[in-house]
From TrEMBL, chains A, B:
UniProt xrefs under Pfam families: Glyco_hydro_2 (PF00703), Glyco_hydro_2_N2 (PF22666)
Family stated for the protein in its record: Belongs to the glycosyl hydrolase 2 family.
Record protein name field: beta-mannosidase
Catalysed reactions, as listed in the record: Hydrolysis of terminal, non-reducing beta-D-mannose residues in beta-D-mannosides
Organism the protein comes from: Pelagicoccus mobilis
One GO term of the biological process aspect: glycoprotein catabolic process
Domain Beta-mannosidase-like galactose-binding stretches: 25-173
Length: 747, 747
């Protein structure tokens, strides 16, 4: 959000690889900046698309090379009184910067930007080189992401159950020459604070210039409508200025569906002698107060001796209002972060908003998103749970790693803290479980807590997810080891927040055809492209994940076509997710958070827990989840997926309500829908319901009739409020179906 | 541990009270420094002992007054080239220091020392005044310790279930004039680090002088035997010097019964022109590495989805060895901390060592102990779990409190971190329970974590006790609301650490007579002195705590004499504690810590959970606990306390072993001892047992014979290793005892 009035010049880059730090590349080829060295090499050498078939393997060599970028810069025409700066948003991952062959900057860490004054080179033509080291390697298992256990590069690049091993390197953020006036502003930061009633905001603004100056600094704060809310003139005689503004009855920033996403504009202008602005910085400012609070009844537990602690708080309270958080786990939208820009984020974030989400968990295995991600989350009311780049690893306790993490985390916090969407800082993913073996005492987590407290003390901090009370998983519709379905797994759980849970489903047929060679398409094999794209062997517990054909077979028999396989797989995913989201909502107020694993994906999966295929192609589950996340809906709780002819179908009816004002009552009609008949099972007239409260209704029961299909629907219809209607699909099994019905198709 | 070669002059003080900040006392009376204004007033006005009967009430007015100390200082004979300093270890709680009527220092917080150069007053006679403010008052309930929820003064002074309301004020630490050479050392601090195998120590030493100097600084490190382990000469040309020393195969500091408490001596000498030391500072240095580690099997849980986190680690690992922590909760040994000195601590700490304790939890409701406490814990091998002064309150989140806490916690950490005994920093007591309503997100706890990490990063930090896995309570032998005894309460529990549990018992008769007026002695009434000394109404859950006469009645009928009451009450306390300590040990390795509530007391209690009466008079329970904490002992697990004639007595036999080397096997003989017969119930030959492992043995069963007494003993005798013998006492009930036996005594 920072903009300046300075001139920017884009640069032309070349890149090449070499086998040791002190070598030079034999050949250079054109480089796209920002981007990745692998993509430049692929383009120059005519490689096939990295995202098709098993092509990621073509790139594995590249992570072990040194790479050198170079660019020539003409500083012979710098305007008088201007200073040229080399400005770089980030290089992935360890690198040196050389000017005319001399190293002037060395850095480990991709999330810390840097800039270099080129004042001493004015009038000359110079060459800048960026020497990129091979991907970090802690010496741990090099075939596993544990090799990233001593660096701050996201571990996902070494491969995950939905990500191939492909480790990007290179300049991944905007990099350019900027000419600035000899005296200019270089920092504008602020801290907001709301009083107990959110009726008074305090805005503390800090600015710095590159040198002490007598030029006046004009500060302006404009309200969301553009009116001037505050104006003042400060002195930068010491090189910095701090100023605190109080705003009565500020317009507040609210999460999606809770109110407007009001933002003010803060403008700092260094006024030159002629009265014009010679240096300007701007930021958006949102006022909101975010806390983690205990749920209703939480202090009553535990109730017996010996007495432990009460559950930690995980209910997000925004501007004094408890919010039920509906959302998802965000993963990198591309394998190569260098090619991500605001248009990569836009469709994904808009779909999240339309799905009634209000919270995205930015999972610690992936990158810290670019500024435009947070800008758009601010705009769309999507709160962000931001993890540091640590996941499923036991991180080093050595000084070198802690120093890198210290630098990187400070950069991450300083960039994120000024966004009203930033709701929670979190150390990383699943660090207190057996596969990570980190604990509350790990110095990396104590360091992160320290830095978050120092730099952003009023934003909640969690050491990891899950902590006490919370839970991750399960990740299958039906656990083949014990026959448990999501209906019982979640129906019997009692957690404060479900911050990860998955239901896998295949991608659609047309999509599969774009990256799986035709001869591999059907039937899917646990090898080749299906395996490379995560349909088989992706996750340890279930060997056939994420396609899970044995689960499909269990309910519907073995599919005879790819279309049939996809249809049933997607049905299970959609119905499973519907149940979990709604069940989590039914468990309010003990539960206050439902975030599925995962929202998106960085490349095409054949099957995955994702709701949206790469780059932004929604699966049927996306639409089902969006239905289940409406603020107000009729909902049914059931105990299982498959029902038999003659069995008594039972469902418990609910009105789920997350709306922040009381809602009017209505009339629910439960219908069982079969191909040849619709049975009205029950009517329930329900009263007005207060804000953010659910209402448990009656149970409906009906003996299931004979039917020729293998599914039936439960429809919940509100005659007065049709926008609350819901529909669920279940598997149907004939009473004596040994020689007919779907299972017969396999024989 | 810091000593200097400078001259110290003690001061004569007067003190008086006044009703507003700007008044002066009408009269002054002599003051003892260190001490407390209340004690000075009591002495001057001939008040009765504060610790008798209901006398604390006499002192309540004093906490609402201002108090002014004054002293005259003659600086006319300061040695040439010397600088006099006014040095004060601490003033309780908020105060101003005036020199000749002008305020030169203001402070809130009793744990931060200060010193003032009097260089400008050399040659004069001056008056120094210390104006002490009334006790802090947050505006919360003034009859409850919640009034301390915005200050760093220990809340215990406002009254607890074993502490009267009596809020000390005044100069509570050593305060004197010190003449120092014009150039002198004023800081010597260090940081120790051991490598993974504890075979190499790194000692980083920091020293500062009051001004840059060309005088050489000689650093000497002497080994525990006195040999020179390192010597070097450094420059203080910049006013400070830092030096790192590596020591191969250092002699390690170990907890009690795990090895020697080796300490090195570090000497910093500023060498004057004539080669003598003109300024010397000395510190003791202990090398040990302390970590909190997971217990065996901890990573296997939880095992099902949705999956939470594993329990946090609470097993103390010292120098690579897991230690089962046996210990107790330490509370202030006096109501007035100003009168505490090393001789107050000495007998208590020696008894802790003799009881085989290795860990003291310095409970957050009380004071931070003086330096001599930590020195003696270092010497005796007693590890310290040190809490900050927060307990059972919901602390303020306001800036003013956080700033005070920041200052006070830094002072506390800087003083404590250089002691090898300092094993755990902890935010405070029971903050995550309903009566405190603080959470992991509270800024005070994040601040403490930050300061501990910044100043002492290699010592574990806990936000509070209990956290997940740990537990506090119960505090009664038998819960009258549900009939549960300690035998089932703890036998059915499964916690990682029992960091508080109590069994109340009365004090002995001779002791009771010293503070309860004769006419109140028997029968005890729930009023007057018995109540003031915590026999009744002390704790909410049990109205008759801590004397608990209804529990005594339940087993033995109503006592007819004070002697009988005390005998049975003390028996229950001793037997209850024996069971809990041994049961916690049986639950190893899941459990690794057993700390009863509480060890000592600040004034005489009529009944209390304490093991030792004020000031250092052990109760029978102390000796029972010491037996149960022997490194190796025979132990019996039973399900209840009272057994009936003809009933089959059942006990499970164990060999409890915390020893750090393998122990030889033995032969256990279980005997039931009645007045007229000893029954040999079972013999068990057990093998050699590896270090720090228990061995579960057989169960013994025996039908109980007729007996004329109301108790019987279970003796466990090891014929080869009599030092492992144990004995337990149980209540006995006759089969048809309606008209005879102990209960008949009440009729």
């Amino acid at each position: 959000m920072t903009s300046t009035s300075a001139d920017r010049t884009e640069l032309e880059w070349l890149v090449g690889y070499h086998d040791s730090r002190d070598n030079k590349p034999d050949t250079f080829f054109p480089a796209t900046v920002p981007g990745a060295v692998q993509l430049d090499w692929a383009k120059a050498t005519g490689q096939p698309e990295y995202w098709k078939a098993e092509n990621p393997k073509l790139f594995e060599w590249a992570e072990n090379s040194y790479w050198t970028y170079k660019t020539n810069i003409d500083l012979s025409r710098v305007a008088n009184g201007s200073i040229p700066y080399f400005v770089c948003g980030g290089v992935d991952y360890q690198f040196e910067v050389k000017i005319e062959g001399t190293t002037v900057h060395s850095q480990e860490g991709m999330f810390t930007p840097f800039e270099l004054s080129l004042e001493n080179h004015i009038g000359k033509r110079i060459q800048i080189e960026i020497l990129v080291y091979p991907a970090p390697d802690s010496g741990d298992d090099s075939t596993h992401h544990s090799v990233a256990n001593a660096c701050s590069k996201p571990p996902v690049s070494w491969g995950w159950d939905w990500h191939p091993r492909l480790v990007p390197l290179g300049i991944w953020k905007d990099t350019f020459i900027e000419e600035r006036p000899s005296v200019h502003l270089f920092n504008l930061s602020f801290e907001t604070r709301l009083d107990e009633n959110c009726q008074r905001a305090t805005l503390t603004i800090n600015t710095e210039s590159n040198q002490p100056t007598k030029l006046p600094l004009n500060l302006t704060l404009r309200s969301p409508s553009g009116a001037v809310a505050h104006q003042s003139t400060l002195s930068l005689a010491s090189g910095s200025a701090s100023h605190t503004v109080t705003i009565e009855n500020p317009e507040l920033w609210w999460p999606n569906e809770h109110g407007p996403q009001s933002r003010y504009e803060l403008i700092a202008e260094l006024q030159s002698g002629d009265g014009t602005a010679q240096s300007t910085l701007k930021k958006r400012v949102g006022f909101r107060r975010i806390r983690l609070v205990m749920h209703e009844g939480a202090w009553d537990e535990p109730s017996t001796f010996p007495k432990g602690r009460s559950n930690p708080p995980i209910t997000l309270e925004v501007n004094g209002r408890s919010i039920f958080c509906k959302g998802t786990n965000w993963v990198p939208p591309e394998i190569f972060p260098g090619i991500i820009d605001q248009d990569t984020y836009r469709p994904l974030l808009e779909m999240a908003q339309k799905a009634h989400f209000n919270l995205l968990r930015n999972w610690g295995g992936g990158i810290i998103n670019k500024e435009s991600f947070f800008d758009q989350c601010d705009e769309l009311g999507l709160m962000v749970w931001q993890e540091f780049p640590i996941a499923c690893n036991r991180m080093s306790e050595e000084d070198h790693y802690l120093e890198t993490l210290n630098q990187e985390s400070k950069s991450i916090i300083e960039a994120g803290r000024q966004h009203p969407c930033l709701a929670i800082w979190c150390g990383g993913n699943e660090l207190f479980n057996a596969w990570s073996m980190m604990t509350d005492q790990h110095p990396a987590l104590r360091l992160l807590n320290r830095n978050c407290y120092d730099l952003d003390p009023r934003t909640p901090f969690l050491p990891t997810s899950p902590v006490m009370g919370m839970a991750h998983g399960h990740y299958v519709f039906r656990d083949q080891s014990n026959g448990e379905e999501v209906y019982s797994t979640f129906g019997n759980a009692n957690n404060t927040a479900y911050t990860e849970y998955g239901c896998p489903g295949p991608s659609d047929v047309e999509y599969l055809k774009t990256f799986i060679p035709e001869d591999e398409l059907f039937p899917p094999q646990a090898s080749g492209s299906w395996k490379a794209h995560h349909a088989f062997g992706a996750w340890g517990v279930e060997g056939d994940s994420w396609l899970c054909p044995s689960v499909i077979d269990h309910y519907f028999g073995k599919p005879q076509t790819l279309e049939e396989l996809v249809k049933y797989g997607q049905l299970l995913q959609a119905q499973g997710y519907k149940f979990i989201y709604e069940e989590a909502r039914r468990q309010k107020p003990v539960c206050s958070m439902a975030l599925n694993w995962c929202y998106n994906e960085p490349w095409p999966s054949a099957a995955n827990n994702s709701l949206i295929n790469w780059p932004h192609r929604p699966k049927p589950a996306y639409h089902a989840v969006a239905e289940s996340c409406r603020p107000v809906l009729l909902s049914a709780s059931v105990s299982k997926f498959q029902w038999s002819e003659g069995e008594t179908f039972v469902c418990n009816l609910w009105l789920l309500n997350d709306h922040h004002e009381a809602i009017e009552g209505g009339q629910l009609e439960a219908q069982l829908v079969f191909p040849d008949q619709t049975i009205q099972v029950l009517q329930w007239t329900y009263p007005e319901i207060e804000a953010n409260k659910n209402l448990a209704g009656p149970s409906a029961r009906w003996e299931l009739p004979k039917c020729e299909q293998n599914t039936f629907d439960l429809k919940l219809v509100d005659t007065r409020n049709p926008e609350r209607n819901s529909v669920y699909t279940f598997a149907y099994k004939k009473a004596e179906a040994k020689d007919s019905g779907p299972r017969a198709m396999n024989q």
